[in-house]
Design goal:
280 residues, alpha/beta, TIM Barrel, globular
């Protein structure tokens, strides 16, 4: 079993269109579960956690409707700002068992420091057994502050926490901030976005698995095997390379692990972080 813990589905052909991606983007096309199956099925991917990229509140429901009879979707991470009407919206969407939490940027963490109501909503998210998917590495210092005050909240860092990457190695300040999270076992990290980081320094982007092994090994050294999750960031990852190549880079590293640890990265840790998820 392999669960891709970070994909996006959307349809610009809907009457209201989509707020993302822009019409001039190569990503501006219909992207649905069948499209993921076409590129990922051959890699053995059997399920996905879908992350909502739209800020429109009703698009949370659109994803849940899409997940209704779709066995590929094992969980949904929505998009809700923890401000006005947050509790009402959360009650509404969590009525669906596949709604597993929300995605936020670093600005949300900074807002929690300044606004007790925002902080209370994030604490409530943890009390409900839901997850905060966090985008943006600049927020790693604030993340420790948040988790220490909301100990029941599980957090999944997206895309290596936007780790600064040059020549396959990670920035020392970034390492230091991540090390500060090692005593917080409810913090997980997705093995995604590594080629996007490399594209800032390399043209063309390296596609050889050996280039990225030091990055994966650093993540393993800092966080340990129980907190690393496979994720593709598809279709955004297509800006750099095919789904198959993204998968192959991670698979090259996973194959060097023992069987039990490999199973954790492919699926077991997804259940620990996001569970309960829809089973096959």
């Amino acid at each position: 079993m392999i669960i891709d813990t970070h994909t996006h589905f959307y349809d610009p052909g809907r009457p209201a269109g989509v707020p993302w991606p822009n019409a001039d983007s190569p990503l501006y096309r219909r992207v649905l579960p069948a499209d993921l199956s076409a590129v990922a099925g051959g890699c053995g991917v059997t399920g996905t956690v879908v992350v909502e990229a739209s800020e429109w509140v009703e698009d949370n429901q659109w994803l849940l409707d899409l997940a209704g009879d779709e066995p590929l979707i094992h969980g949904v991470i929505g998009r809700l700002e923890p401000t006005e009407h947050f509790t009402d919206n959360l009650e509404r969407f969590t009525a669906h068992p596949l709604y597993r939490g929300i995605r936020a940027r670093g600005e949300t963490l900074m807002a929690a420091e300044a606004d007790d109501a925002v902080m209370a909503n994030l604490v409530d998210l943890g009390r409900r057994g839901l997850i905060l998917d966090l985008l943006g590495g600049a927020s790693l210092p604030q993340l420790r502050w948040l988790v220490e005050r909301a100990p029941g909240l599980r957090v999944v860092i997206n895309h290596f926490g936007s780790a600064p990457d040059r020549d396959g190695h990670l920035d020392e300040d970034w390492r230091r901030h991540l090390h500060a999270l090692t005593k917080l076992p409810q913090v997980y990290c997705k093995l995604s976005g590594f080629k996007g980081a490399a594209s800032k320094h390399h043209d063309p982007v390296p596609l050889e698995p050996s280039f990225y092994r030091p990055v994966f090994e650093t993540m393993l050294e800092i966080l340990g095997i129980d907190r690393l999750l496979y994720a593709s960031n598809w279709p955004v990852s297509e800006r750099v390379a095919s789904y198959e190549n993204t998968f192959a880079i991670v698979a090259d590293w996973v194959e060097r692990l023992n069987v039990e640890d490999g199973r954790k990265v492919w699926a077991g840790n997804a259940y620990r972080a996001y569970g309960p998820l829809q089973d096959d």
